[in-house]
Every structure is written in C-alpha cells, then in structure tokens.
Amino acid sequence: MYEASSGAKINRQKSEILPIGKGRITDIEKKNKYKFQVYENYILLLGVYVGKDKTVCDHLNWSGKVSRIKSLLNMWMQRQLPIQGRVNVISSLLMSRLWYSLFVTSMPDHVLRDIKTACVNFVRNNGAHLVKYNTIIDQKCNGGLQLPDIESKMYAFRLKFLTRFLDKNYKVLWKSTFKYFISKILNMNLSEEIFMSLPENLKCIPNVHKEIFKGFDLIRDDVEFYLSTENIYDQPLFCNLNVLFDGKTVIWYDFINAGIVQVKDICYEVIEGFLPEIAIVEIIQNVTNHCDINNIVKRYNILKVILPKEWTEIIHTNIHRRNVSRSININVIFKDKLSEFSMCSTKELYLLLTYKLCQHPICYKKWTEVFKIEENDLCKVWKNVNFYWKPSI
Q: What is the pLDDT of residue 393?
C-alpha cells in the first residue's frame, strides 16, 4: 500500500515491524510477504524505545542516561569549580541529554529522584544542603542559582503539547489518539471540554496524558477561561470546580451512564431553558431499570441551583447552536501580566511553574528588617550582584 500510494520503495533491509494489540505475524508472512525484521516486545523509534512492556521500555530509555549523567558528574567533581560553575555544568552539559526523551515520553519517578539527587549533591560538592532545593531553582535575581528543575520542565513540555491540542489549526495524528483516551475518562465521552473540569480518575489514560492534566492543574489558579455561549453549554457538569455542592464537586454515575455529562444535556435544543424533571427521569430510566425517581428529581434540582448564575442567565436567554464552531480560549496570568495560553513558550510555562514552586531565601526577612527596604528593592541588589562584567579592551 505504501509503495502504491507514494511511488517510493520500502528498504526491507532497514525496515522493522512491531505487532501491537492482538495482531500477530506468522513465520510464513515473515519469510515470504514482509521480509522485515520483526520484533515482538519493543522497537527503537526515533531514538525512543516503544513496546508492549512499559517497564522494559522505561529501563531501556532511561537507565543508560542516568549512568552517563552520574559518570559525567563524577568526572566534573574532580575539578575545583565554584557553585555557579557546577550549576552551569548541569544546565549546559547534562540537561540537554534529557530534554528530547522527556519531551516525547514519561520519566519514571525513581529516575527523576536519582537524577535530582545526583545533581543536587554535585552542586553541594557532596556536602551538607544548607539551602532548600526550592530556593536554588529560583532565578538569580530572586536569590536562587537557577538550577534546572526537571519535573517543572517536563510539565512545561506537556503544557506546550496542550496548547497545540487546543489549536484547531494544528492538525496531527496524535490529537486523535489523545481525544480517544480522554473520552474514556469516567466514560463521559468528552473532548477538549474536559480541561474546564478537574477529573479525578485518570487510570484509563497513558502516563504522558496524565502529566498533561497534572501540569494544567498546577497552573489552574493562574488561568482564566473566556467562555462563549457555546463554551458554557459544553461545560462538564461533574468534577467541575465551578459546579460545587457543599464545597465539593459532584459526580453522579447514573447521570453519566445516561449521557447527562454537559450543561447542554439538561437543556432544550431549539429553545431556551432547562429540560423538565420528567425528561431527565426518562433519560435515566432508559439505561437504568431500578431508580429512585424522587432522588433523581432532587439531584436535578440541586444541579440547576449550583450552576453559576452567569451560566443560568445564558441558558434562559441564548439557544445552544450545535453547528457553530467553538474553541477554548485560555489566558494565563503571570506576574500581573495577562497572556494567551496558546502563545506561551515552553520557557514562559517553565517560569510560571517554578514561580509557584520557588521559595525566597530566609535571609530576605532579615535584610528587609535591617535595611528597612521593600522586597522588590532587595531583588535589585541580586541583579547587581549577578551582573556580568565585561572588561573594556
């Protein structure tokens, strides 16, 4: 098929096959039809091992990198470097070995701990850790050492993937795969709208996709959604931080099993307003043989009450238009500056993540009391200390 459609010929000596799912290739097919090298468990694809056994692939992807990083750190440990020089070694020589693999695959927790411990011990020259880790990863102007934080960088990569996923003009195959997995979350059959909620059960999706959700949760307090009428009708009813009952999100599986998962599912299609109680009862009875009608009516009325007032006003005044194209517009607030989420670079997302994580040195409190200055003025001192001086010729 490939040769017929493209006009090119497959290089059978260099091509490899990995059967996945329930598919199998017989010995006769290997010999007479495909004539490729067939692998049963894993295969090297664009520098990353992928296959059926996640544990084996994680070992192949990361064990060699961890060993090489530790060897390189031991070699540089023999040199008498200042603390900033050791940070530069990590930033320039070590992290570049991780970024590609970290961008396309998930890093196991034990690998993250090993690399993080090795880097911090190298910075401290195997001595006592006198300053908190959350301080040394901060920017130099804030009193930190600007040591790269691997976990924050990983979440920044995942958030960059999310910006592309939400971009309607960015058409790639992996978006369809991502949509398939997130549609399985709580069987709600949602797509991009699920990021307007906070789903609890993510066991049904791959680790890389879980990290996208975790990364977005880390910046959720700094995110603003611009909601159009269609966005409001598409809002999830369950696990939504805007729909709270007694201070908690709600999740009712009988509603979900009946297909009632979004605001539009409890509204009319051609006129404004909510569906009557009897309609909701009938929808649930179609999939559930034995149900408490009074309980369903009670919860439905609760649901209408706990919806935000702005949403209710839209529902009573505007019709849901299914054929209108819609997109999810997200703004990010960072240091009192409003930016479009889709326009954020990986570096900006990394700075946002570390900004929420970092802690100022404890000396800040002491020096602000001694010199009676504001914290912002104290930061200017750090800028002068770290200013690169270039001698004149």
A: 47
